[in-house]
Amino acid sequence: MNFTLGFKPAMGDSSSVENLEKQLICPICLEIFTKPVVILPCQHNLCRKCANDVYKASNPLWQNRGPVSTGGRFRCPSCRHEVVLDRHGVYGLQRNLLVENIIDIYKSESTRPLLPKAEQQQLMCDQHEEEKVNIYCLTCETPTCSMCKVFGAHKDCDVAPLPDIYKRQKTELSDAIAILVAGNDRTQALISQMEDIGRTIKENGHRQMQYISDKFDELYAILEDRKRELIETVGREQDQKQGHVRSLIRRHGDHLEMSVKLVETAIQSMEEPQMAVFLQSAKEVFKKITDTAKASNTERTEVGYESMAHFIINTEDVADMLRGINFQTGEDVEDRGDEAPEDPTTSLGQTGESGRCI
């Protein structure tokens, strides 16, 4: 059904008055604030009744504890700021006397109904131009006029006074808004909880990664120490063998030098032209040659003395064990002396991968 809009002239239609009226609209019931008006910590205002409705919708378990609740919380419908209540509930919120005084002044100065601007428009029936829309057709679920009910399309329908349906649907919409706001609060709380869990997961992951890194650093240190010990063992035998070979080289070198000099002396004796002189010196040369031959040292190292192949280590088993390092179960951890750093989630009774250790 179509309607035409008729406007009633009223005092105070200026933009300043309209702006003032907008500031006096409750964001829950969408009406002018009903006293008492309470101010929230975020400086937004609500009718106390609307604040109580939002509070009860956000805390359904406390709805049956009487008119005064023992604490609780809800979120401001305007800015989503969390409002924490004391044991007096919404009755512990401070009244905004300034807003209440402004409402009184506005009511005394304004001659038009204190309703939102959209509701000041008077709907006129498009079938009966002189008739105002003043009833509601329950069958067709649409506003209509009295003439339509008596003579028009709605004469066989069930109708009700328009203000009654208006108040009922306004109440239903307010309750739906409160339920939606409460649902938003629960969703926001869930998001906050998930964000906290995400931060905890990140912290626990960094902690366990550092723990694993420290454990492997300990293994690296053990391997480095053992490598140094084994290398020092090989180095000691190497130095010992090289020292023995050098001593043999020196002794054989000294013998060779003596023998060369003796050969030179013998050659000089062979060049002596005088037989008598040759015979006198040859006897001594023969004696030196004989003594040198007897003193000849043919000591040498045994076969394979130079080999260092006996310094062999088998790392296959250790390598397999290192490759098999993995996270242990909770029962295995209880049997070990070294424990992983405590995970805050496990101390709260939660279980998960972050509680494992190597």
UniProtKB/TrEMBL annotation:
<feature type="domain" description="RING-type">
    <location>
        <begin position="26"/>
        <end position="80"/>
    </location>
</feature>
<dbReference type="GO" id="GO:0008270">
    <property type="term" value="F:zinc ion binding"/>
</dbReference>
<feature type="compositionally biased region" description="Acidic residues">
    <location>
        <begin position="331"/>
        <end position="342"/>
    </location>
</feature>
<dbReference type="InterPro" id="IPR033492">
    <property type="entry name" value="Trim54_Bbox2_Zfn"/>
</dbReference>
<dbReference type="InterPro" id="IPR013083">
    <property type="entry name" value="Znf_RING/FYVE/PHD"/>
</dbReference>
<dbReference type="InterPro" id="IPR017907">
    <property type="entry name" value="Znf_RING_CS"/>
</dbReference>
<feature type="region of interest" description="Disordered">
    <location>
        <begin position="330"/>
        <end position="358"/>
    </location>
</feature>
<dbReference type="InterPro" id="IPR027370">
    <property type="entry name" value="Znf-RING_euk"/>
</dbReference>
<feature type="domain" description="COS">
    <location>
        <begin position="270"/>
        <end position="328"/>
    </location>
</feature>
<feature type="domain" description="B box-type">
    <location>
        <begin position="120"/>
        <end position="162"/>
    </location>
</feature>
<keyword id="KW-0175">Coiled coil</keyword>
<keyword id="KW-0863">Zinc-finger</keyword>
<dbReference type="GO" id="GO:0030154">
    <property type="term" value="P:cell differentiation"/>
</dbReference>
<keyword id="KW-0221">Differentiation</keyword>
<protein>
    <recommendedName>
        <fullName>Tripartite motif-containing protein 54</fullName>
    </recommendedName>
</protein>
<keyword id="KW-0479">Metal-binding</keyword>
<feature type="compositionally biased region" description="Polar residues">
    <location>
        <begin position="344"/>
        <end position="358"/>
    </location>
</feature>
<keyword id="KW-0963">Cytoplasm</keyword>
<dbReference type="InterPro" id="IPR050143">
    <property type="entry name" value="TRIM/RBCC"/>
</dbReference>
<keyword id="KW-0862">Zinc</keyword>
<comment type="function">
    <text>May bind and stabilize microtubules during myotubes formation.</text>
</comment>
<dbReference type="GO" id="GO:0005874">
    <property type="term" value="C:microtubule"/>
</dbReference>
<dbReference type="InterPro" id="IPR000315">
    <property type="entry name" value="Znf_B-box"/>
</dbReference>
<dbReference type="GO" id="GO:0030018">
    <property type="term" value="C:Z disc"/>
</dbReference>
<dbReference type="InterPro" id="IPR017903">
    <property type="entry name" value="COS_domain"/>
</dbReference>
<keyword id="KW-0493">Microtubule</keyword>
<dbReference type="InterPro" id="IPR001841">
    <property type="entry name" value="Znf_RING"/>
</dbReference>
<dbReference type="Pfam" id="PF13445">
    <property type="entry name" value="zf-RING_UBOX"/>
</dbReference>
<dbReference type="Pfam" id="PF00643">
    <property type="entry name" value="zf-B_box"/>
</dbReference>
